[in-house]
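Can't paste images in this forum, so I'm doing it all in text. The chain is below; anyone willing to post the predicted structure tokens underneath?
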Amino acid sequence: MRTILKAAAVAILALALGACGTVSTPAVQAKLTGKSITVVSVVGETVRLSWRGTTVFNNEFGEARVSDWGLRTRVEDRAVAMLEASKRFTNVQRAQITATRREEALEQVEDLKTGSSHVLLISPNESGDSIFNTSVGFEGLGVAQRSILRMGPQSAAHASLKADLIELGTFQARILAQTVSANAQRIPSPALLPGPRLNLDKTASARDALRVQVDAVVTSLLTQMGLDQAVGASADQPAAPSAPQRMLETPAPAAASQPAAAPTPQGAQTSPVRAPLVIEPGAPLEAPGR
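Text version of the structure:
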């Protein structure tokens, strides 16, 4: 019965989020100063594989377990490091749950016994295909490939993540803010073989690209909430971008008097980090009793 009620609450929560407006970053920051927080990630153990063929009937999808790539730990490490650097929280820790999807994680977060007042939940998200411009979007962390009649394949690594900042309460938890971010970049081809499955000759390139993207996307998620800023910092003066961000962000065009820059190598071409989707405080994780 409890499971059914929680499933219904999550469904109601999804509807509530769609109607929310923009959150005030200073207001969120004020709620967090002097509090404790636990980072929970449900991404990184597997990557999604997708091969876009000549028609939709030629598309192939799959997954590969890549726990040895260290992506889940990297997501957590990046978030924990930024939260600790802000000196906003009295305690920053991490916890693992069994859920692999956001909806399941929202149910399990309420039962965490970490002693923290807040939870930062990072989960897979969906975004558009910013590399091949097909109707098949990108989801979570993954490797994608595009080819026509199996000839001339082009490959890309992508990261699409969502962050929920959750306030734990005595009777129910509330989502204070939510952000999304996505990035994709081309990698050496063919990164996938029919099936699809990872091409072992190209896995190092895919792994390294995803590591860089994880750093940049997680940084973007927290920056949108203002959680990268030290206590007392002005929201109008954001922290300097991290190395992964500088690597992935597209530089401004050079002046006309300057010589044109050399073309970017194939392995370093990227799409920009996506704009945020932010919600206002107070969305309950469970429906109020009637």
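The two ends are 17 Å apart (CA to CA). The first helix runs from residue 2 to 18.
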